[in-house]
Amino acid sequence: MDGRKKEQWSSRIGFVLSSAGAAIGLGAIWKFPYVTGMSGGGAFLLIFIAFTILIGLPMLISEFIIGRGAEKEAISAYKKLAPDTLWIWVGRLGVIGCFLLLSFYSVVGGWVLIYTGLSIPGMIIKDGASYSELFEAIISNHMTTFLGLALFLLINVIVVSFGIQNGIERANKYLMPLLFIFFIVLVVRSLTLERAMEGVRFFLTPSFENITSEAILYALGQSFFALAVGFSCMVTYSSYLSKDVSIPSSAGWVVIMNIFVSVLAGLAIFPAVFSFGLEPAEGPGLLFIVLPTVFSKMPFGELFFSMFLLLFLFATLTSSFSLLEIIVSAFTANGNRSRQAVSWVSGLIVFIAGIPAALSFSSLADFQIFGKTVFDATDYLVSNLLLPIGNLLIALFIIHKMDETLVKQEFLLTGNFSPSLYTTWRWLMKWLVPIGIVIVFINLVTNS
């Protein structure tokens, strides 16, 4: 057993919270509620939940099985389970994908960090302020974006350098409960506003006549994108998992928490937006432009907006920890390199790689790659190409290459599950999941 494997999650709850933290990111909190509301409300929500259970959950279980079955991080796991084959490139693809994702994800994380810092002393919400102009000013300022990017990555480096138990697990044990507490406070405040029920109906009432094929495809794609599967992050996380923890039940809790957060996000945002007669906006605009307008009209609005920004910051950080961890673990797997040193070097390289994405809204705004800015092109490469390919390769690997005896053993270990549940999971991974991934991949490539 190598030196790296001396590290383990201290408990099942630590593993579940960290895995849920990896899955719950900015997309789940700001984009998912918007698309839900614009795509049929409760009808879209039901479709998303169904796809998450039938596609996302089986994929999450698969990554958990690969990681704990091999007891190795992403690259070494495929090397051990399929020696002397090209399957090792599934792990390498994961590391490359996480590196690219972290390079532009940290730019957005830096924006959230800067906004959070400005909101606490009351420098965001002001009478007569133009929040769209403020947002443009911040993301187009070199020093501000560089500072945000550097500070965001610094937090990640410090946490990951302390290791699994003392770093990532400890941080998630504080950040995830705080995220839920802040969400509940904001939901209660939002629901007590005048006309709040209009927002609730907008978000939750099933309206199947508004469901389009595009909305269904988005729900299908979101079902595995939302759970941080495809880049073997969960392979690395589960490699630190002890054998006395049930993989299916742990994966089930991660899925439940992810869906719960998505619903809380909608209940926090839409009642407030509708209460003040505003229209919801997609992407960064919802967080940085629409919500400041909403909170500016509330009593103690600055306080609640700061709380909301902290919530977003927590979600961004818990996701980025997993992205940096898969990079660091790949280069410390042989036990010959210091985790601290690799963490700092990795953070520095990601910072340098993130500079072009950070400048995409200022001096590099006119620099295009296939008609896209560096930020958008990197996002497209990661989300529309590498992530679906990674999901498909993992699905093929666990069914057609990994030893079935080991797969079944890991699935049923300590769970007291019926063998029929394993048979159902295996059927889903063999047929439904690959077909779903291919459909999403074709849709993403042809409609982007």
Automatic annotation (TrEMBL):
Q: Which UniProt keywords apply?
A: Membrane, Symport, Transmembrane, Transmembrane helix, Transport
Write out the transmembrane intervals.
12-30, 42-66, 86-118, 138-162, 174-192, 215-241, 253-278, 303-329, 341-361, 381-399, 427-446
* Mode of membrane association: Multi-pass membrane protein
Q: Where in the cell is it found?
A: Membrane
Q: Name one Pfam family in it.
A: SNF
Protein family = Belongs to the sodium:neurotransmitter symporter (SNF) (TC 2.A.22) family.
NCBIfam families, alphabetized: Na_transp
- In Swiss-Prot or TrEMBL terms, this protein is called Transporter
Organism, by scientific name, is Aneurinibacillus thermoaerophilus
